[in-house]
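From: lab user (bench 3)
To: helpdesk
Subject: output format question, protein + guanosine-5'-diphosphate

Hello, I'm new to running complex predictions and I'm not sure whether the block I got back is the full result or only part of it. Here's what I submitted:
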Amino acid sequence: SSLPPLRSRIFKIIVIGDSGVGKTCLTYRFCAGKFPEKTEATIGVDFREKVVEIDGEKIKIQLWDTAGQERFRKSMVQHYYRNVHAVVFVYDVTNASSFQSLPAWIEECKQHSLGVEVPRILVGNKCDLRDAVRVGTDLAQKFADSHSMPLFETSAKNPNDNDHVEAIFMTVAHKL
Ligand code: GDP
Ligand code: MG
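Helpdesk reply: Thanks, we reran it on our side. This is the complete output you should expect:
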């Protein structure tokens, strides 16, 4: 039997959320298996990929992580939202305003035809910061439920914290 063309086994997943929530660190953790030693603010689009095996089939996962800069967005946004297979919304559990921004990000996705028919998940990052005031899990879970998304709380920095970054992205890949 012949395999489907490689192109059909590439999944594009976009990682969305306010600047500083850890999108770049999360994609780096998943694709490189570690926390980056230093990150620079994403200019334009950060793009990483990793080949994973699912049910004996090799799948290439492309993670796109955008910067929020208005200047960049106008020219790139159409390209960014094209042919997307899944969406990962990220907020920082220690930053309430990044949680409050989520409806706007969800709305922007809907405007680009990325609604409930596309697998979407919600990720609360930086759970390693235990002493900080946190966005409550109950509140986040309610919000996730109201948008029909699963919620994961994680840390790009400490892989043993809560949900594993690897497992989160693999959950998405399995859905695809
Ligand atoms: P982005 O703008 O969403 O891409 O955010 P970055 O990935 O560049 O991360 C922003 C800042 O948050 C950096 O200083 C990271 O080191 C830090 N950061 C990212 N993820 C975590 C995490 O899980 N825990 C902690 N403590 N810091 C994190
Ligand atoms: Mg970034």
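A quick orientation on your result: The pocket of guanosine-5'-diphosphate (ligand 1) is lined by residues 19-25, 39, 42, 65, 125-126, 128-129, 155-157 (CB under 6 Å). Let us know if anything else is unclear.
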